[in-house]
Design goal:
Layout: E1 3-4, E2 10-11, H1 39-43, H2 97-101, E3 107-113, H3 115-122, E4 137-140, E5 145-149, E6 161-162, H4 163-167, E7 175-181, E8 187-191, E9 198-199, E10 214-216, E11 221-224, E12 228-234
Parallel strand pairs: 5-6
Antiparallel strand pairs: 1-2, 3-4, 3-12, 5-7, 7-8, 8-10, 9-11, 11-12
Length: 236
């Protein structure tokens, strides 16, 4: 049974309004039914603050090391965590992000157009090298996994070395190949099953085996697409 409050509220309590805290009844002698010292604290309801919202973040982070990343990244540039498979590269388990970041990338890649490879790889295909020839570009090997390919927004593929944008080569696959660095700083190249293959010589005689990690070092030249050449050079 509710008690009418002078302020028009229907109180669930007989002595104090359960809505606004107004005193409703007094005991004999004028004393409040609830001791004044405790009545306000015990009887007057207090608003409940809303739950604290988590701090806003600038974007997604790596589940392994916590470093910020782009939502379309395939791998974490800090620790190499594979966002698709939810795993670290072989040999990196147990290594902290701090330890992995301490290894300095030993090489960079010079990206250019190679006419000899174009002549050997294209054959009778009706394809011409862009005119003017794209200038050589230098791409540092930052991080421990470097995807080589071409951007595909619809598939969420954004390679660190976007060959199509660098040489205008239409024959490179979206996920063409990947460069990986182990905890010792050594690099390997793996063709990811590209359509036109990856080669170590400009004569396009034989593509490297897809899916096999091939150890490479400074001074290695890679050929892919229709006319693209990648020269791995030691960083000084």
């Amino acid at each position: 049974m509710s008690t009418a409050c002078p302020n028009g509220h229907a109180s669930e309590w007989a002595d104090w309004c359960s809505v606004c805290g107004e005193r409703l009844a007094e005991v004999e002698g004028g004393a409040s039914a609830v001791p004044a010292a405790i009545a306000p604290a015990a009887a007057i309801p207090h608003p409940v603050p809303p739950s604290a919202s988590p701090p806003a973040t600038a974007g997604p982070t790596c589940q392994n090391c916590g470093v910020s990343r782009h939502e379309h990244d395939v791998f974490c540039e800090s620790c190499g965590y594979d966002f698709a498979s939810g795993s670290l590269p072989e040999g990196a388990q147990g290594e902290s992000a701090t330890t992995q970041q301490a290894v300095t990338a030993p090489m960079h890649v010079r990206v250019s157009v190679d006419h000899e490879f174009f002549a050997a790889s294209v054959g009778d295909v009706d394809l011409t090298v862009p005119d003017p020839i794209p200038e050589q570009k230098i791409v540092p090997l930052a991080g421990i996994r470097i995807l080589i390919g071409r951007t595909s927004t619809s598939r969420g593929i954004f390679p660190e070395i976007d060959v199509r944008s660098l040489t205008d080569d239409p024959a490179v696959s979206s996920r063409h190949a990947i460069l990986e660095r182990d905890v010792s700083g050594n690099w390997t190249l793996t063709d990811l099953g590209s359509t036109n293959g990856t080669f170590l010589t400009a004569d396009a005689d034989a593509a490297i085996e897809a899916g096999e990690a091939l150890p490479i070092a400074a001074g290695t030249s890679l050929y892919l697409g229709a006319w693209t050449r990648l020269d791995l050079t030691a960083t000084t």
